[in-house]
């Protein structure tokens, strides 16, 4: 049974700010900065998608066989410490900083900030002035919310592209991302196999437990992000491939469909980029997108408390 009728979007809302952020300074590639723990992913036969989609009209199907060349990929999503090194080296200003605000999940907004503006139909997303990759939950929250070993958040697709260029790499394609996420297991739903996470006894990744968006029991140990290197890695050694934070890919968000309402939705998402993996806000009852084949489209300037990325390097 598909869960399409129950699937809303805990994913990233679009800014719709009406104006572009001031331009960022250009980033110059200064050689390759492949981290010591980058993993070599073997090439060959690669599996993408599924013939058993759970969320209709997300483009999860069909299941297809492709081929991929070997590449290297970060064992983790880019961490705050790694992103801070990039900022020190380049003086780059993220889009959240240039816009002057970003989206924060309602539970993370400090009461001291006072009233915030919600997003229509997804009121749990709040516009918070001064929120960015340092001050994750709003002005003055770096000391309480920022951790060097956690994934960097409040990064747009454009920010992720800039970091990847600086690191001498790039963002993964969807095919590369799924190939790495499967960890050599083949046609499986999750990086560890097919066993479903639940709210009681099995929490192999950082997702929501409880009644979204009201109550999170944090049975997995985390209300928001977990350290980037946490839980058991998959067969290739990747950590937190699903859950924790959404991961930007290099690809545009596209769906092949002849249905009018799908084409109309896609027309409103022109220019959106593809994200994979789900986040700490996903739950089977609402946003069942922490499966390998699941996918989401996000505006390239969108920044939130649950969006990150990892880098690949071609061989």
From TrEMBL:
Protein name, per record: Serine/threonine-protein kinase pkn1
All residue ranges annotated as the Sulfatase-modifying factor enzyme-like domain in the record: 37-313
Gene name linked to the record: pkn1
tRNA processing recorded as keyword: no
EC number annotated for this UniProt entry: 2.7.11.1
Gene Ontology MF terms in the entry: formylglycine-generating oxidase activity; protein serine/threonine kinase activity
Keywords, ordered alphabetically: Kinase, Transferase
InterPro entries referenced in this protein's UniProt entry, alphabetically: CTDL_fold, Sulfatase_Mod_Factor_Kinase, SUMF_dom, SUMF_sf
Pfam families noted in UniProt: FGE-sulfatase (PF03781)
Broad enzyme group: transferase
Keyword Chaperone listed: no
Chain residue ranges for the region called Disordered: 1-22
Biased composition (Low complexity): 13-22
Organism, as annotated: Tritonibacter multivorans
């Amino acid at each position: 049974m598909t869960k399409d009728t129950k699937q809303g979007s805990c994913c990233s809302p679009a800014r719709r700010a009406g104006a572009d952020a001031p331009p960022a300074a250009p980033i110059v590639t200064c050689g390759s900065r492949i981290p010591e723990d980058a993993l070599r992913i073997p090439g060959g036969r690669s599996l993408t998608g599924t013939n058993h989609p759970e969320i209709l009209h997300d483009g999860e199907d069909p299941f297809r066989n492709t081929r991929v060349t070997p590449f290297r990929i970060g064992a983790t999503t880019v961490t705050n410490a790694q992103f801070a090194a990039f900022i020190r080296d380049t003086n780059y200003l993220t889009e959240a900083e240039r816009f002057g605000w970003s989206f924060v999940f309602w539970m993370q907004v400090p009461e001291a900030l006072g009233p915030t503006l919600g997003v229509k139909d997804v009121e749990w997303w709040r516009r918070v002035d001064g929120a960015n990759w340092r001050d994750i939950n709003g002005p003055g929250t770096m000391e309480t919310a920022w951790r060097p070993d956690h994934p960097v958040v409040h990064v747009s697709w454009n920010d992720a592209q800039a970091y990847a260029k600086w690191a001498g790499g790039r963002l993964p394609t969807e095919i590369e991302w799924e190939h790495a996420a499967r960890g050599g297991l083949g046609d499986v739903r999750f990086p560890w196999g097919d066993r479903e996470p639940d709210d009681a006894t099995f929490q192999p990744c950082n997702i929501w437990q409880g009644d979204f968006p009201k109550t999170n029991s944090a049975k997995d140990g985390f209300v928001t992000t977990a350290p980037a290197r946490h839980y058991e890695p998959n067969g290739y050694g990747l950590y937190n491939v699903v859950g924790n934070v959404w991961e930007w890919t290099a690809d545009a968000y596209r769906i092949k469909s002849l249905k009018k309402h799908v084409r109309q939705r896609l027309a409103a998402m022109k220019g959106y980029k593809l994200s994979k993996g789900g986040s700490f806000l996903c739950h089977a009852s609402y946003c069942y997108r922490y499966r390998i084949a699941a996918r989401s489209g996000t505006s390239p300037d969108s920044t939130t408390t649950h969006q990150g990325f990892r880098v690949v390097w071609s061989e």
